[in-house]
Every structure is written in structure tokens, then in C-alpha cells.
Design brief:
Strand order of the largest sheet: 3-2-1-4-5-9-8
Pfam families: PIG-L (PF02585)
CATH superfamily: LmbE-like
GO molecular function, one term: hydrolase activity, acting on carbon-nitrogen (but not peptide) bonds, in linear amides
Shape: globular
Number of helices: 12
Number of domains: 1
Protein name: PIG-L family deacetylase
């Protein structure tokens, strides 16, 4: 090709002294390697090793991207198809699982439900109101309610409980994380709470699942698709129930209920008699799921404000974030 044709096409031929030209000459590759490895100013051996150790200890892989959701999972769930994949629902308390996808649990053929807490706070306020004399008695009551609720739904999941006190899940973050890594190892789909600052244990579930999947990914194991559901949050200084904070990258799917499904779901919620004064907001509940967004757990949830800062609880958002950051530091995340 002539130089004229090169100029017309917008192509500029390299000069004989350009890097491209030198790279093709004999010995140029060795010269380039020698240049790259040429020693700089002399540095004591101990200092070089100290610098290497600092870089190694301070390096941490980023939190993984949310894996691609299982193809068609939400569409199949919305159409009430049978779900053969291994689904693990990770929730904070007994009754949260019904709010997540109660109307479709009887369509899930290989279902596990994990409760991070037994639903019994250490302060005993709710237990005394119910005439119970110990937190353990209250926890056992909540457990019986779970079994009855699953029967009402016509679901037959494996039920696992980590037995931590209500409102204190983040205080047991390392133990919860270790257990989640074990229990999520064979999961294909995980459903858990949205990070929305509605309840400290809800936020802990969202964080724990993400860190557990990070560990699985680091071990070279297959990572399940993760979906989330909302319960309650503060938006613009007002309480919002069962609605996501908008995220265009994570479109939601509403699981519409027939009259029979709504009756079955309401019957399951009614089995949680200990929560009769709490679940009033769920009377017209719509089940919503979406792929879990990539939250930065070192930052507040998208809503900003915390519902649980308004109850006078010991576990405030500031305290939760202190423990969450410690867990993230421990995991190098």
C-alpha cells in the first residue's frame, strides 16, 4: 500500500523508530524485559519484604457482583410452575418467610428455610405479655408457630434455626456467616431480605448472605442467584410496607395471589399468634421479589433512615453499622 493510500484511509504508518517497529527487530523483546526489570535505587532487603507484606495484608478482593439470577425463575414462580431448583430462604425471624413468598412455597420442591434468630428478644417484653416466664419458652413458641404456618401453606421445607436472640443477629455475625457458608453451599436460589433499615436483623440477613456468597466464590464454588423481598422501611420520613426502594437495574416481580392463595397465606400468618399485634400491615400484602442489587454495606441503605432508630432499642443503626463494618473488615470486604 502506498503512503498516499495510507493517508486517505486515516491510517498512519509507524515510523522506523516507533515502539512497534523496534518490537519486531531481533533482540528487542529481551531488551524490553531487561528495561522492565532494571534495578532502581538500592533498597534494604528487610524494607522490601516489609513493603510486600504490607501490600499482601492490605489487599482484599472486592465484593463479588451479584450472580446472574436463575434464568426464568421469577417468571416461573409468577406462573405458579413447579420449582425444582434448591431454594434457600434466609430470613431473620419466624413469619418473615411467609411475607417473602408464602403463596408459592408449596411450588418449591426442594426448599430450605433458615431463621437467623428464634424471634425471641432478650428484653422479655413480648414474652411477659404472652404470659411466658423465659426467653427460651418464647423461642419454642415461635418455633411451633413456624411448623403450623408451613402446614397452613401446604409447604414441606427443611427448617433450620440458628437460635440467636431477636434484634441481636449482628452481634453473632461471624458465627452466622460461618453457618451460612455451610448451609448455602448447595443452593441454586437464595431469597433474603432487602437492605432497607427496617429491622437490624433484616439488614444482617442481607449482609450475611452477600458475605457467604463471597466466600463460596473465593473457594471456586458455584454461587446461587440471589433475590430479595421488602418488608418495611422509612421513605421520606414516612413508613412504607412491602415496597422496594426503586432500582432500575433490578426490576421487581409481583406474585399476584388468587383468593385461595390469599386465604392460605393469611391462614399461615394467623398461626403466628404471638405476632397478632404486629402483622396487621400484612392484611393486603403483595409478595414482591427482585434480583438483589449490589449494595455497599459500608454505606447506609438507599432509604438512609432506619425504622429501628425510632423504637428506643439498644440496637441502633449506628451500633449495627459498627458491628457490620467489623465483620466486613474481618472478611477483607
Amino acid at each position: 500500500m502506498s503512503s498516499t493510500s495510507c493517508a486517505i484511509s486515516g491510517y498512519r504508518a509507524p515510523s522506523r523508530t516507533s515502539t512497534s517497529a523496534r518490537w519486531s527487530t531481533p533482540g528487542s523483546r529481551k531488551a524490553a524485559r531487561r528495561w522492565a526489570s532494571a534495578p532502581g535505587p538500592s533498597t534494604p532487603t528487610w524494607a522490601r519484604w516489609k513493603a510486600i507484606a504490607w501490600r499482601w495484608n492490605s489487599w482484599a478482593p472486592p465484593l463479588p457482583r451479584v450472580p446472574e439470577p436463575v434464568p426464568g425463575f421469577l417468571d416461573r414462580l409468577a406462573r405458579r410452575e413447579r420449582i425444582p431448583e434448591r431454594v434457600v430462604v434466609v430470613v431473620a425471624h419466624p413469619d418473615d418467610e411467609v411475607l417473602a413468598a408464602g403463596s408459592r412455597m408449596n411450588r418449591m420442591e426442594n426448599l430450605t428455610v433458615i431463621h437467623l434468630t428464634d424471634g425471641a428478644p432478650r428484653d422479655m417484653e413480648d414474652a411477659r405479655r404472652l404470659g411466658l416466664s423465659s426467653r427460651d419458652d418464647y423461642g419454642r413458641m415461635r418455633r411451633r408457630e413456624v411448623v403450623a404456618a408451613m402446614d397452613a401453606l401446604g409447604a414441606d421445607p427443611e427448617l433450620l434455626c440458628y437460635w440467636h436472640p431477636d434484634k441481636e443477629a449482628i452481634l453473632h455475625g461471624p458465627a452466622i456467616l460461618d453457618q451460612l457458608v455451610e448451609d448455602l453451599g448447595e443452593a441454586q436460589v437464595v431469597i433474603t431480605h432487602a437492605y432497607e433499615h427496617g429491622h437490624p436483623d433484616h439488614d444482617t440477613a442481607a449482609l450475611g448472605v452477600r458475605l457467604a456468597l463471597r466466600r463460596l466464590s473465593a473457594d471456586g464454588r458455584e454461587v446461587p442467584g440471589v433475590y430479595e423481598f421488602p418488608i418495611y422501611a422509612i421513605e421520606g420520613d414516612r413508613p412504607v410496607f412491602g415496597r422496594f426502594h426503586p432500582d432500575p437495574k433490578s426490576p421487581e416481580t409481583v406474585l399476584h395471589l388468587t383468593e385461595a392463595e390469599r386465604a392460605r397465606r393469611d391462614a399461615a400468618l394467623a398461626e403466628y399468634r404471638s405476632q397478632s399485634g404486629v402483622l396487621g400491615f400484612a392484611s393486603q400484602w403483595e409478595e414482591r421479589l427482585r434480583p438483589a442489587p449490589l449494595y455497599d454495606f459500608r454505606q447506609p441503605a438507599p432509604q438512609g433512615l432506619a425504622w429501628y432508630d425510632r423504637h428506643g432499642w439498644d440496637m441502633t443503626l449506628a451500633r449495627w453499622r459498627e458491628h457490620a463494618n467489623a465483620l466486613l473488615d474481618r472478611e477483607g470486604a
